[in-house]
Type-1 angiotensin II receptor-associated protein (Microctonus hyperodae), 135 residues
Amino acid sequence: MPDISSITHYPLKIIFAVHLILTTWGIQGHWCPQSAMFYNLLFFGCLLWAINNIESDEPLQFALIINILSILFDVVTLAIYFQDHYASERFSGAIMIINLLVRLISSKYLLKIGRARNGSLATLFPPGPGEFVVN
């Protein structure tokens, strides 16, 4: 079994992979507008930037902001455009809802990673009482 401790930026790569799979399946429906691909590509670009640039938490700030805004964008997209005429459309909508829920978890991890980098995310959103920091 491979040793995952030797993989650099493991949490960011997991966030990237999970959202890539869910986004790919979520936007396959004919009902999904191209704007969903646009804001997801921006999110993926910021994640790749954060993996490449470890000295700054600025890429994480952008990724976190886009991820939080994407929650709103996904809700609006589902509410306005979703049509469930075929099983493939229902599958696409269900996966988009799962991706929406995963965004809540990934936002929390992006915030924790930003705090660990000791950038402005560490002071912008200080940990509250009872929160633990994952390293």
